[in-house]
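Q: What would this chain look like folded?
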Amino acid sequence: MAGARGGGAKVYRLKAHRERLKAEKAQATRQAVLALDVPEPVRDDLLATIEEWSPSQAGFTFVQLSPEQNAAVVRWLKDNSAQPMLALVLWAECFRYQRRGTNEIRASRQELAEAVGTSADEVSRIMSELVSIGAIIRSYEGRRAVYRMNDRVSTKLAGKLRDRVQAESPQLTFAPKPKRVRSVTPKRNRSQSHLSVVPPPAE
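A: My prediction, written as C-alpha cells:
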C-alpha cells in the first residue's frame, strides 16, 4: 500500500516537473519574441500561439468580453429564441471551446449537444439564431460547418492585433425575429348553417 502511494507521488512530481519546464520554456520564448524586430501584428500572433501552447496550470483561460455586446445577445435570445433557456446555456458553453487566435469554437455539434443536454439538430438551430444576429460567424470547410465567435463580442487577442481584427469583424444586428402569424378560419354564421333550402312549388 505504501509503495502504491509512493508511486503516485512520483508520478505527480514528474508531472509537476514537466509543467515547470514547459512554463520556463514558454517564458523564454516570450522574451525571445518580444526582442524580435518584426511587425507588431506578427509578434502578437506569435505571442498568442505561445499562450495557447502553455495554458494556465490551474486550467483557467482568459477571454476579453464586451459586457454590452454580451448583454445584448443574452437579451435577444431571451426575447426571440424558440428555446430561450437552452439557447442561453449553449451561448455560455461556446466560451469554453473558444480557440485563441481564431475564435473558432472547437467542439462538434454532438459535443455541444451533450454538454447542454439536447440534440445535435437543436444545436444547429440555435447556432443559426446566433449567426442571424452576427454573434457567431459561420463558414464551411467542405460540408462541415465551422463556427467562431465574433471578435466584437469576445476575443483572446490583445493590443493592436485585437483592434484590427475587431474593426474587420461584422457589426451585430439585433432585429427581432418575425412572429409567426396564425391563420384564423372565419367562423360560420350559425343562423345560416341551419337554414334549409325550400324548393319552389310545382306548377
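Strands lie at 64-65, 136-141, 144-149, 154-155.
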